[in-house]
Write a structure and sequence with these properties.
The chain is of the alpha+beta class. The chain has four domains: about 1-200, no CATH class; about 220-320, PAS domain (Beta-Lactamase); about 325-400; about 410-560, Histidine kinase-like ATPase, C-terminal domain (Heat Shock Protein 90, 2-Layer Sandwich). Helix content is about 55%, strand content about 15%. A hairpin with a 4-residue loop joins strand 1 (about 225-230) and strand 2 (about 235). Helix 3 runs antiparallel to helix 4 (about 80-105), helix 4 (about 80-105) packs across helix 6 and helix 14 (about 415-425) crosses helix 15 (about 450-465). The longest helix has about 50 residues, at about 170-220. The radius of gyration is 47 Å and the shape is elongated.
Amino acid sequence: MQAASSVNESRWEGTPDAELWKMLAALVRWRLVVGVGALGLGLLLRPGVGEATRSTLLGAGLLALFAVTGLYVVLLRVRRGATAQAWIQAFGDCALVTVFAAATGGANSQFVLFYVVVVLWAGVVLETTGGLATAVVASTGYLCLAEIAQIVLSDPGFTAPGRASSPVPYSPSLVLFLVALGAGGGSLGGRARLDRQTLRQKSREVERVRLDTDRILENMSSGVLTLDSAGTVLHYNRSAEDLLGRPLAVVRGRLCTDVFGEGQRPLLDRIRGTFANGQAVSREEVWVKAPDGRPVPVGLSTSFLMDEDGSRRGVIAVFADLSEFKAIEERARRSETLAAIGQLSAGIAHEIRNCLNPISGSVEFLQRELTLDGENAHLMGLISHECERLNRFVTELLDYAREPRFHAESADLGEAIGDAMDLVRRHPAYRPDIALEYDAADAPHVNVDREQFKRVLVNLLQNAIEALEGPGRVAVRILPLAGDRVQVTVTDTGPGIPAEYLPRITEPFFTTKRGGTGLGLAIAARIMERLGGRLTVASTPGAGTTFTLELERAEALAHAA
């Protein structure tokens, strides 16, 4: 029994003949169980058998049975030729039954009936060919029992049980029955094989559909959460895990109220309310708390999970983070506002310049014609200076308001940065204790309007050196990005920008700099938008500020064209 049970059926999982191997392993086990029981009961209950003869036959029979079983176990461990091993077991069983029958009365032996069992299982396992072939072998053994008995019982002092009495004649009907049984068992085995193949195919299709569904749900960018009527989580995908901050292993199969916190309560209440109220929701907005603690707007749609009979047994919720959409909406509103401000600014700047030109011209005329000194000369100089400052403001206002023509070209990013840094070194705010750092190695080409892009760089570098109240450093770096894009960062070691000012840093007329117009960064951001890139800012008070420009390489644009 230990030898038979030691065959590990799991080793055949996934092999082409896995089912046949399992059948053979089961035959090994049951052959041993049935053989031991049949030998013991058959010899014990058979009349006319002496105690010594019974013991001898039982010992020899068990020895043969265990020997054959051990051989089959060894062959199973080899794991080669499943069909060949099935034929070996079928013919081996015929031989084993023949020997047992020959030793216990020939055609009169109760073991003759086991031919039926062998032929039947051979037909089921090896189908029609195996059933008929085994029936022929079994019939041959049955018809040759007398001759085989003389070989097996060659000892003249040994008399087989029952042989002293009149022998039972051979039954042709048994031979015909074995042949018919082999054909019938083979037909049954073939049909069972086709049924198993159909079942396996359907099981594979069902499994494939299930796996495809699971993959689709797992790779959805939207979160999917399914609850039953009691609020138990039935399904929970990766996007839901990322958004709600609870791992799948903790959530699935548990009540949602036990695994989610107060931050997710508005979402859960709306999902459970769908089942309670019997009304699904579509694109409803709720707010949840993200794993990092920030509030996140979520778009929610729900539907009912139905049983086969059409009854509702749960709710399916699909939800997505709307933060990016909110940001896009905010940028769209901001663009509309800035466009309106630009149009208004253009009109105002035009009217201011119409008034400013005669004033500045008159001041210049008076300065040439009049000789002023003292307070009068100071006042006249103040008027002239303020006229110049107002004219610069109007120029910047017009630059922001108008839509200049851009001449896109492939520009060397390193040369553009170098030219901008040379200009900044001549700026009045530049000091020797300010270190300008830039590594021009492997600078790519970008498709930009060179002069406009240089204007953006000069503006950012000027802001950086003006932010340094003492010795400091301004570093320019080029960082490659995935997707043939590139970043240029301008980092200073100044005092930084307060967090509450960062969202408004590129708005027109917003400035924290004394004497600033609040248009420099607004113009830079607008130029970057026109160039197909973007400008972002990150700052930590006391640790400096980093402006980031993102552009696309000229090679990528040329390839796309």
